[in-house]
Design goal:
The protein is an alpha/beta fold. It is 26% helix and 22% strand.
């Protein structure tokens, strides 16, 4: 029997991406009766929640279970400011971490795996989920690019202190990594149940509240959101892996 997989996607002003998102999802080479879906809509003014709500009857006929929820965090970037602007990276990613955690808590039931997926992916192989599962890794990330063979799009997936991306690791099979992104990320559900979340704060710093006689844990600076999740996973005893030769294509920004 195929494992039960929960596909989770946080969304914000995503109506223009929904047709492509659901078309790609329907093309997955994986039984829909073993797939559940979960969506959290936040801080949107383009009708994303209503557009998803309209699709629920059809989605619930096709998939095992569908969860739709919403929560506004009050984060709006000033007009004309790109979401990648350095000044807004920490607050933006903190909100995204909170969004992911709320969605996880609202949607996870009895599934075996959680597949995190961006709404604005352009394409991915229909076999991608089976290939991620077949890797045998508990936390694994495919290689996100904006066109086949291009350099890595997801700069949050790295190792060697951020100096090496999956692009430099092509041809090496499954590779250990230190940071992950969330464009597409497969996590064994029990690791989430054991406490793995997306930190909405710099994770890995030494707190002044740690007892002096405890071994120092983490390192100064810390990581947030998906990269913080990767550090937390390692602290929990789990390796994090990337598949440099399994490409998914993200829409260019």
């Amino acid at each position: 029997m195929s494992p039960r997989v929960l596909v989770l996607t946080p969304m914000k002003n995503a109506t223009k991406h929904l047709d492509r998102y659901f078309s790609n999802l329907a093309d997955l080479d994986y039984g829909a009766d073993n797939l559940s879906l979960g969506f959290l809509v936040s801080d949107s003014d383009d009708g994303t929640y209503g557009a998803l709500d309209d699709r629920l009857p059809d989605l619930r006929q096709r998939y095992a279970r569908v969860t739709l929820t919403s929560h506004d965090f009050g984060l709006q970037l000033p007009e004309g400011i790109d979401r990648w602007s350095p000044a807004f990276q920490i607050p933006r990613r903190a909100v995204l971490a909170r969004s992911r955690n709320r969605l996880l808590f609202a949607a996870l039931r009895d599934e075996d795996w959680v597949l995190w997926m961006d709404v604005d992916l352009d394409s991915y192989p229909p076999t991608v989920l089976n290939e991620l599962l077949a890797s045998g890794k508990s936390i694994v990330h495919p290689h996100c690019v904006v066109k086949p063979g291009a350099r890595s799009f997801d700069g949050n997936t790295w190792r060697d202190g951020g100096d090496t991306t999956l692009h430099e690791l092509r041809g090496h099979g499954a590779v250990r990594i230190e940071g992950v992104g969330g464009t597409m990320l497969l996590v064994r559900a029990d690791i989430h149940r054991d406490g793995l979340i997306f930190p909405a704060y710099p994770y890995g710093t030494r707190s002044p509240f740690i007892r002096d006689h405890n071994p120092m844990m983490g390192r100064l600076g810390g990581e947030i959101e998906t990269e913080g999740l990767a550090v937390m996973a390692k602290d929990m005893g789990h390796e994090v892996w990337g598949l440099p030769d399994l490409e998914i294509v993200h829409l260019a920004e």
